Automatic annotation (TrEMBL):
<protein>
    <submittedName>
        <fullName>NAD binding domain of 6-phosphogluconate dehydrogenase</fullName>
    </submittedName>
</protein>
<dbReference type="InterPro" id="IPR048666">
    <property type="entry name" value="RedAm-like_C"/>
</dbReference>
<comment type="similarity">
    <text>Belongs to the HIBADH-related family.</text>
</comment>
<feature type="domain" description="NADPH-dependent reductive aminase-like C-terminal">
    <location>
        <begin position="160"/>
        <end position="285"/>
    </location>
</feature>
<dbReference type="InterPro" id="IPR015815">
    <property type="entry name" value="HIBADH-related"/>
</dbReference>
<dbReference type="InterPro" id="IPR006115">
    <property type="entry name" value="6PGDH_NADP-bd"/>
</dbReference>
<dbReference type="InterPro" id="IPR051265">
    <property type="entry name" value="HIBADH-related_NP60_sf"/>
</dbReference>
<keyword id="KW-0560">Oxidoreductase</keyword>
<feature type="domain" description="6-phosphogluconate dehydrogenase NADP-binding">
    <location>
        <begin position="5"/>
        <end position="153"/>
    </location>
</feature>
<dbReference type="GO" id="GO:0050661">
    <property type="term" value="F:NADP binding"/>
</dbReference>
<dbReference type="Pfam" id="PF21761">
    <property type="entry name" value="RedAm-like_C"/>
</dbReference>
<dbReference type="InterPro" id="IPR036291">
    <property type="entry name" value="NAD(P)-bd_dom_sf"/>
</dbReference>
<dbReference type="Pfam" id="PF03446">
    <property type="entry name" value="NAD_binding_2"/>
</dbReference>
<dbReference type="GO" id="GO:0016491">
    <property type="term" value="F:oxidoreductase activity"/>
</dbReference>
<dbReference type="InterPro" id="IPR013328">
    <property type="entry name" value="6PGD_dom2"/>
</dbReference>
Length: 291
């Protein structure tokens, strides 16, 4: 497969994407707003376009990966006349609503549209462990499946262009919860001068064990049955409050954990024993403060 590919945006991620296309033999054209980002890629055989218009004209498949959707539109809106008949693959992080709006813009101008969420850091691109989620045009995904597969594992989700963003942001939310917990734990131990490197070998197997319970909890959430894990939320609230008290006594900020305590409080108020974990998700979905 020697389909020519264009990559717009040569930040850390765009450079990795372009590099993976070059490594697998795709004629690759690149463009970036600022100069000085393309030299290394040019040395590996990339064609450096002088303008974004020239970059779009070079390939049937145009990958754009920039800071945000405002930038996507800043670059593409003036070039709406040149996208017809091409496949636009937008790998920029954004919201489902932004993805759907951009899909509408592409359809209005005769382009096939795929929105993608990159579940990887730049150094992983080009390897199977780099998962890229896609939604939007199923036809375009089928035609370009092997080209997109050069970036990592390409998984198509749904014809609704917003789905890849929804999954991407949900996966990032889960990741930030894990990181937030780790940062707090490191601060607690650091308050007694325990080096984080000493703590890491304990926290990794612990978190792995807890991650292993997620599929069971997920089944309980979907079926509406109790989690049956012998860990009711009233009991959990007591130990959670102990984390907050101990943290304050150690001079550690509780800002990352307070929202979790507020949610546990709501659950215990709503159910006598707090119910179990699926109740927390129900409460989040019924957030009276959200739009
Ligand atoms: P960088 O900050 O390294 O690069 C940002 C890119 O956006 C550059 O090409 C920059 O161009 C361009 N840009 C910013 N503002 C403008 C503008 N007004 N007009 C034109 N171009 C502009 O970010 P990354 O490459 O790391 O990230 C790009 C996307 O990839 C983001 O949506 C990010 O969420 C996503 N992503 C990144 C990951 C990572 O670990 N890096 C992981 C997964 C997804 P210029 O050089 O001219 O400033």
């Amino acid at each position: 497969n020697r389909t020519p590919v264009t990559v717009i945006g040569l930040g850390a991620m765009g450079r990795s994407l372009a590099g993976a296309f070059l490594d697998s033999g795709h004629p690759t054209t690149v463009w970036n707003r600022s100069a000085g980002r393309s030299e290394e890629l040019a040395g590996r055989g990339a064609t450096v376009a002088a303008t974004a218009a020239e970059a779009i004209a070079a390939s049937p498949i145009v990958v754009i990966c920039v800071l945000d959707y405002d930038v996507v539109h800043e670059i593409l809106d003036p070039l709406s006349g040149s996208v017809a008949g091409r496949t636009l693959v937008n790998l920029t992080n954004g919201t489902p609503r932004q993805a759907r709006e951009t899909a509408g813009w592409a359809a209005d101008h005769g382009a096939d549209y795929l929105d993608g969420g990159i579940m990887a850091v730049p150094m992983m691109i080009g390897r199977p462990e780099a998962l890229v989620l896609y939604s939007g045009s199923a036809g375009a995904f089928d035609v370009h499946r092997s080209t997109l597969g050069t970036l990592g594992t390409a998984r198509y989700l749904h014809a609704d262009a917003g789905q890849a963003s929804l999954y991407d942001l949900a996966l990032l939310a889960a990741m930030y919860g894990m990181f937030g917990g780790f940062y707090h734990a490191a601060a607690m131990l650091g308050s007694e001068k325990v080096p984080s490197a000493e703590f890491a070998p304990l926290v990794v197997p612990w978190l792995n064990a807890m991650v292993g319970t997620l599929p069971v909890i997920a089944e309980a959430m979907d079926s509406g049955a109790g989690a049956d894990d012998d860990s009711n939320l009233r009991m959990q609230l007591v130990s959670f409050a102990n984390i907050l008290t101990a943290s304050r006594e150690q001079g550690v900020s509780t800002e990352l954990l307070e929202p979790m305590r507020a949610l546990l409080d709501r659950a215990v108020t709503a159910h006598r024993d707090g119910g179990d974990v699926p109740n927390l998700v129900e409460l989040l979905r019924a957030d009276p403060t959200s739009a």
